[in-house]
Amino acid sequence: MKYRSTRGTADNAVGIVEAICAGLAPDGGLFVPVEWPAVQAGAGDYPSVATSVLAPFLDPAGVSASDVVAEAFDFPIELRPLENNVEMLELFHGPSAAFKDFGARFLASVMSRVVEDGERPITILVATSGDTGGAVASAFWRKPNTEVIVLFPKAGVSDRQRHQLTCWDTNVLSVEVEGVFDDCQRMVKAAFADEWWQSNVRLSSANSINIGRLLPQVTYYAWASLDYQKRHGQPAGFIIPSGNVGNALACVWAKHLGFPIREVVLAANANTPLTNWIESGAYEPKTTVATLANAMDVGAPSNMERLLDLYPTAPDFISATSVDDDEIKRCIATAFERWDVAICPHTACAVSAYLERGGDHWVLVSTAHPSKFESVVEPVIGQTVPLPPALAESLKRPTSCHSASSLEEIAELKANS
Ligand SMILES: *Cc1c(COP(=O)(O)O)cnc(C)c1O
To answer: What is the pTM (predicted TM-score) of this model?
Structure first.
C-alpha cells in the first residue's frame, strides 16, 4: 500500500512507515491511501476482524498486523443494547478511558517495532489540552525505542487530567508550560522548524492527523457493523460524536471499504462547521466555541481535508447535527432515565441526534467514560460515577513534572533526560 498527500499525487506516494513517522506530508497535506485494498472479513471476534482490516494497510511495514492488534487493543470493546434495534458502541475501556486509546496504542506499537534497537529512538512531541496527551503518554510508556515529551498548559487542565499527564517515568517527560494550549502548540511547531531539534532528535508527532491514528479506528467500525448485521439481518447507521472528525472519517472509510454501514451521522456540539457543510454544501472553518463536550471544541476540523478528498460534496449517506450545552445535559439525563446508563457529554451529542431521528437500526458511538467528566455528569444524574479500574490505578501512581516557559528550556530538559 502507498499513501499520497491530499495536496499531491501518487507520484510522491510513500509507504506506511514513512507516512506514520512523518505525521504530516511534506507539502502540508494529510496522507490518504492511493488505492483502496479489497479487505476480506466476515463477522467474527474483534481481534480477527481488526487483523484482516489492518494487514493490507500495514503491508509492507514488516510488522505483523496480528501482533500489533494483540499488543495495542488488549482491552474490551462492547456493543451494549439500549433498546430494540439500538445499541451503544463503547470505545472507552482502554487505559485512558476514551477512544483515543485505539489510535495512540496502535501508533506506539507500530513505531516501537519499526525502530531497530541501537538506532536513535523516535521522540514524540505532543501538545495537549487534556485528553490526547494522557492517551499518548500511557500508550508509549516503556515502549522500546520511543520517547514522549508531553507539553500541557499550566492553566487549563483539570486535576485529574494533570495526574494522567504526569504519572509516568522512564521514556515519558511531562512538561508544564507557562501559558495556554496555543503556546504549547506553538512550541511544537517551532521545534519541527528548529535546527537543534532537527539535528539532535528524531522528531515525530502523534496528533490526530497522523494516519496511524486513523487506520486503527476503522477496525471497530468494521467489527461492529459486521456484528450488528449478523445479529439483526440489517445494516446499522452509526452516530458519531465529532470534533476533528477523525473518528467519523474512520467510519466513512469503513463504509468505503465495503463494510455494512447504512449511513453516518456527525454529531457535534455547538461548533457548526459540519452542519454548515451539509446544509450549504460548502465547507468553511469557524471560530471555536467552548462547550461541555470540550474534546470536540473544534472550529476547523483537520480531517475535513481527508473527507473532502474522498467526497468533494457531501454524499447522501452523511448527515450532521449540532447541539448546545443545555441539550447535552438534557440527553445525559434522558439516557440515564431511559436506559440506565451514565454517558459523557460527547456521547450525549450522539444521543441527541438519535432522539431527533428515531427509527430503527442505530449504533450510537460512546467516546469516553462518564467518570472523566464527573463535574458535568454527576450533578445531572444525581449520583457519583465510579472510576473504571485502569483509570483508578493510574490516579494512584506518583507524579513527576518539569516546567518550562520556552523551547530552549524544553531542549535543555530533553538533553539532560
Ligand atoms: C477526541 C474526542 C472526540 C472527537 O473525536 P474526533 O475524532 O476529533 O472527531 C469525541 N469525544 C471524545 C471523548 C474525545 O476525546
So the answer is: 0.95
